[in-house]
Amino acid sequence: MEKTVSKTIFTVVENCVACKSCEIACAVEHSCSKTLAGAILETPLPQRRITVEGVGAYSYPSRCQHCSDASCITACPTGAMQRDGNTDAVFSDHDRCIGCWMCVVVCPFGGVTADPVNKKALKCDRCPERTAKGEAPACVSACPTGALLFLTPEEFAAQRRQATAHAAVCGESTTKLNGMDILRSLKGAN
Amino acid sequence: MDATILPVIETALLQVSADKGLATARDRLEVMSPQCGFGELGTCCRICYMGPCRIDPFGNGPKTGVCGLTPDAMVARNLLRDTVGGTASHVGHARHVLLTLRDTLKGKAPYQIKGVSKVMSLAKTFDVPTEGREVNDICRDLVNIALEDFGRQDDEQPNNWLSKRAPVAEQALWSKLGLMYSNPHNEIETAMHASSMGNDADPLSLMMRVLKMSLIDGWTGLALCVDLQDILFGVPEIAVTEAAVGVLEENSVNIAAHGHNPVLSEKILEWAEKLEGEALAAGSDGINVVGVCCTGNELSMRHGVKLAAHNSQTELILATGAVDAMVVDIQCIWPQLAQVAKCFDTAFITTDAMVRIPDARHIPFEPHHADESAREIVQTAIEAFRRRRGKPVDIPQLKSTAVAGLSVEAIIDLLSRLDAEDPLKPVLDQVANGNIFGFVGVVGCSSIKFRDNAMTEEMVKHLLRQNVLVLTTGCTAHICAQDGLMTSEATYRYCGEGLRSVLEILGEAAGLGGPLPPVWHMGACVDNSRIVDLMVVLAERLGVKVGQLPAVGSAPELVQEKAVSIGGSFLAMGVSCHIAPAPKVLGGPMVTKLLTEDLQDLLGAVVRVELQPKAAADWMVAHIGEKRAALGI
């Protein structure tokens, strides 16, 4: 069987406006009720696995990159951190996790953190229930500006190639500044 | 990029909070950041339940709301509702003062008519006969004229305070643009109605409503309110005071009056004097009433009461442990204050039914029983002092002297010492010869988003170097006072040569023993009508419209909705405005262009956003230069 590289979550950083819809959708997806109204009433409260970080006038939704050669899996002493055979997503088996935080230490992206309730590793699992149904992960579906995309690396690269080719042939886009551009340039002067 | 300078006072105050382990607004802002771009752009519509709807600024996602509302209409509706918030606040304040004056005249509220000169000048404005009449009778007529404005249902009949108080030339333009109003309450209702789901969806129409609502703020919310406050509490005269946290006194009963309405704070001051004996008996050195936020400005303008803190410092001064009572009325009262007060022996006292805060002590205050309530509040403070006495406090010993009380009347009184016949002439001569390059009204709030680069102080210093006279109110007045910009020394230190020479002459005339300060404290944020009134008398003396004067408005640290409607009222007068941060309209390109460019053709004024002090000052100086060129000076 031909092996392809699985779809994963890509970020188009200039499209992020820090609305944090991804954070809320992630927590809801990892709740029992899977509804916002239900999730906020649960004990313990469901935890998000994506965090929008601010960088000057920009923002960046940060989470696990599901690395092909994942140092968290290598570093895990109990085998809790593993790769899903079907989706290639890196996930942590809570029953085996001992909360030693080696995964937190070795992750170069800050993609693993600690669940404050069970004191075990907490990270993006790339929404296995949703992707099994052919849906994109919750954060990607919730993003209103296309800052998060669910694509294979090849598909994402193809998009970039097409954009580059378009610019080379037609010249750089001269579309008018949008409100976010103006806001960023104002803040960038700060 | 300008240097990052956290003002010395903020640094000291933050250290006090840090030493006590208290989180502050800066910490809460950090947790809140980054803040939502849809909100910042104004393209989040929460008005109906098909929403919330958000417009993708990059054009990949939603381009309109579910109902089809365009981004421009969305930002305009949101801006209109912001403006309603600001105008409703000022109009509510004005009506409260009006009813207090009415009940005072009926003998039902324990206040007096202290501003007889104001009664007489307003009688002239409103054609009320004065010959052989008692002051109270004249005043009753004025009250009825004001009450009529709140009861009229015939929208064709113009508002009294607008049509009689505002300059005639501007009224002709407002009339042409459909901005004249009758009853402020009706207009607030109409604006909320028009901006609800399924109503006005035309961005231009909505923006005209924004301007109309701002005009209501300017002439009913501000002018009416200030006129009547002057009648009740007196017209401010030049007074010397002190500003910053160092005005708190370890061994005194410190009462911080916070909020906006002098109907409360004047009574607190009165009862603090009456109960001085009880305070001494409690082992204190006496009662020290200090002013916070805008009711602080009201007290400093009329009584030289010391100023302890601007809005973004309110939670910080509580951390000194030296405030025995913070008594608040309306507007800009952070709920957090009650939580900080709980950590100390501070009595945090709310007084208005509209401002209820969990964990605060509520002592209802209304004008009919003002004396009983004020006595209870001051006694509560004395009790708090008894509990605090002997405990350590941490008061940073920082304060500056400041000249306050520059009402239009006080300014004209001062100028008449130079030219009794034509008091405005000396100023206009100095404007014409360039010694006064122009005027900037620096107004509005203090924002923790801009305290790191000392936005207000630094911007003002850049203006002074370029011979621009600064008129200020509200929390920016506190900032300037704390930074020593309301002193003679500041004139020597910061002003260009021309402005300094003028202020030296004026200071001599005032008998100050030095130059007049270069930043004029004209009151609370509601007192922005004083800045407008000053511009109106200058324009009338010159025979030009206010918009032709070399004058600009600036809200360099905008926080409250009130600052939005005040800015709009300046625009309606033809006065351009600098603001920071950006208004929540950038998601609507047409509305953005209207405010920053096209308004020039409509009103002769534009909005400019600059987030750095020097860039802001440079733009204002350039804009003033254009106005001067148009006047041929």
TrEMBL record, chain B:
Residues at which [4Fe-4S] cluster 2 binds: C45, C48, C53, C67
CDD domains with a match to the protein in the record: CODH
Organism for this UniProt entry: Azomonas macrocytogenes
Protein name: Carbon monoxide dehydrogenase
Chemical reaction(s) catalysed: CO + 2 oxidized [2Fe-2S]-[ferredoxin] + H2O = 2 reduced [2Fe-2S]-[ferredoxin] + CO2 + 2 H(+)
Uppermost EC category: oxidoreductase
Pfam family, one: Prismane
Swiss-Prot/TrEMBL keywords: 4Fe-4S, Iron, Iron-sulfur, Metal-binding, Nickel, Oxidoreductase
Domain of life: Bacteria
A molecular-function term among this protein's GO annotations: anaerobic carbon-monoxide dehydrogenase activity
EC number: 1.2.7.4
Residues engaged in binding [4Fe-4S] cluster 1: C36, C44
